[in-house]
Amino acid sequence: MGRNTRKRRSSMATKAIAASAALALGGGGLIWANFYASAHESNNNGWSQNQTKAAAAQVATISCPDVGQKLTNVPQNARQGVATELANLDKQITEAYARLASTRQAQAGDSGFVQNAIVGPLKEKRAATIDRIRIDIQRVGGQFNTSLSQLAACTTQNAQTNAGQNNGGQQQNGGQQQNGGQQQNGGQQNNGGQQQNGGQQNGGQQNGGQQQGNGGQGGNGPVAADFVDITKVQGNAQLGVGQNGLPANGNSGSRGTFTTKCGTNANKNHNTDNVIVAPGVANGAHHLHDYVGNQNNDAFASDQELAGASTTCQNQGDKSSYFWPVLRLQNGTQDFDQNADGGGKEGNVGKILQASQAQIKFVGNKKGNVVAMPTALRIITGDAKAFVNGNANANVNWSCTGFENKVQLHDKYPICPQGSQVVRTTDFQSCWDGQNIDSANHRTHVSFVQADGTCANGFKAIPQLQVRLVYNVPAPKLQNGTVVNPYAVDTFPENLHKPITDHNDFINFFSQNTMNKMVNCINTGKNCQ
C-alpha cells in the first residue's frame, strides 16, 4: 500500500498558479515566473497565441542565495529551530512567486514594480528570518557568521539570460577539499546554454508543444537541448562529476561486495518530504521520491520509528532507507499527484515510471579495509539544485544498457536505441569523519574518495553504496528543436528538470550483526547478500 497521504499533517494549501513556483530548500533558488504559469488559470482564451508575447515581456526569474548550504556550523540543539526558519525562507519565496505571477498587468505598466513590490519586501522578510537563525544559533552558544546576513538580497533577471548563473562560488559546501578542484565543472557544464532554451521554451515551444499532448511542465522543462542520442556521443565512461562519485573499489584493498535486494517500489511508497534536510517540514523536498527499504520514512519519522519500521529488503537485517526522485514520462498522462504539492502544483507532472531494476550494492576501498557505518548515518549524494547552485556537489550518471562501459552522461538525458534501457548510476561518498551521523549542511561529515582511493583529512573508509536504477523508457523524439514525449527526473521547479540535478539519499539502519557481516565480507573479498 502506498503511503501518499499522512495523517500527521495537513496538506499545504497552494494555488494552482504555483505550477512553476520554485521552492528551493534552504531558502535559495530561482523563482521561475511564466506569464501563463498555470494552465488552470481562468481567462486563458487565446492561450497559445499569447505565449510568445508573454515570453518576451513578462517571463522573469528571482535568484536567492542558498542560505542552508552556507550554514556549516550549527549546534545540534539549534538545528530544529534553524530548519524551521529555513522552511520559512522557502515559504517566503513561494509567496514572492505567487505575487510575481498574479501582478502581470502591474508589471507591464511599471518597470520598477517587481523590485519595489516583490524583491524589496522579500529581502526584508529574508533578513528578519536570517536574524532569527542567528538568534537560534547564538542562544545555545554557537557562532554565527555575520556575512550570512548579506544573503538576504535576491536579484531579478530576464528568463532569456543564464538563470543557471551557477552561484558557483557559493557551493563551498560539502567541506570536501577535493570538490574544490572540480569546480571547473560548474563552468564546463554550466547548463547555461540549456537555460537559454529553458527561457525561450518557457514562453513558447515548451508550453505550446508539450501542452498539446506531450506532458507539458508549465515551461519548466525538459527541453530538446537536455537530450542526446547516446549512439552519437563520443565515448567517456567516467563515473561521477569531476572528483565526485568516483568508484572507491578496485583490484586491490578490500574487494568484496554486499548486495541487498529491496525491490523497485512496486508498492508505490512515495512522498515529497526529505527527513534528512527538512525534518518536520511537510513537502520539504518539493518533488516526489521513490522509497525502497525502510517503509516509515517521511518528514516526521524519528530514528526510533525508522529503526522499528518494516522493510522491503529481502534481508530483514536491512531496514535502511534508500530514496531518490522519481522519473516521469511526459506523454500527456496524469499521475496521482497531478494536483498535489510537490507534484503537478510544482511542475512535476507526467506518468511516474517504476524502475525495472534497482540494484543496491556496497563495495570496499582499493586502498585497504573499510569500517562499519554507524547506525542512522545519513548521506545525501548529488545536488537537487545543481542547475542553480553549480556542480560542487553534483554527482550524477545517465547511460543506456549496452553503453555503460562506453558513455556516462551528466548534463544530458540519453536517448537510447531500440532494445536499450535508461540507466541512472550513483556512487556515494564513502569517507566518514568517524564521529557524526549528520552535519549542519548534511555534507561535511562524509566525503568522496580521492582518485587513488584514499580518504582525505583523516576520514575513515566505509563501505561505498552504489545504486543502479534501470528503466524501460520510450525513446523521446527530437523534432524541429522540440522534444516529443520526453522523460525527466523530478526537480525543484526552478531547476527545469535538468539531468544534472539527479541525486540519491541513504539512511543506515542495518542491524549491527548485518553491518558486521557486510564489513567482513567486503574486507575478506567475499560476495555476500
TrEMBL record:
<dbReference type="Pfam" id="PF09362">
    <property type="entry name" value="DUF1996"/>
</dbReference>
<feature type="compositionally biased region" description="Gly residues">
    <location>
        <begin position="200"/>
        <end position="221"/>
    </location>
</feature>
<feature type="region of interest" description="Disordered">
    <location>
        <begin position="162"/>
        <end position="224"/>
    </location>
</feature>
<protein>
    <submittedName>
        <fullName>DUF1996 domain-containing protein</fullName>
    </submittedName>
</protein>
<feature type="compositionally biased region" description="Low complexity">
    <location>
        <begin position="162"/>
        <end position="199"/>
    </location>
</feature>
<dbReference type="InterPro" id="IPR018535">
    <property type="entry name" value="DUF1996"/>
</dbReference>
<feature type="compositionally biased region" description="Polar residues">
    <location>
        <begin position="249"/>
        <end position="269"/>
    </location>
</feature>
<feature type="region of interest" description="Disordered">
    <location>
        <begin position="241"/>
        <end position="269"/>
    </location>
</feature>
<feature type="domain" description="DUF1996">
    <location>
        <begin position="276"/>
        <end position="508"/>
    </location>
</feature>
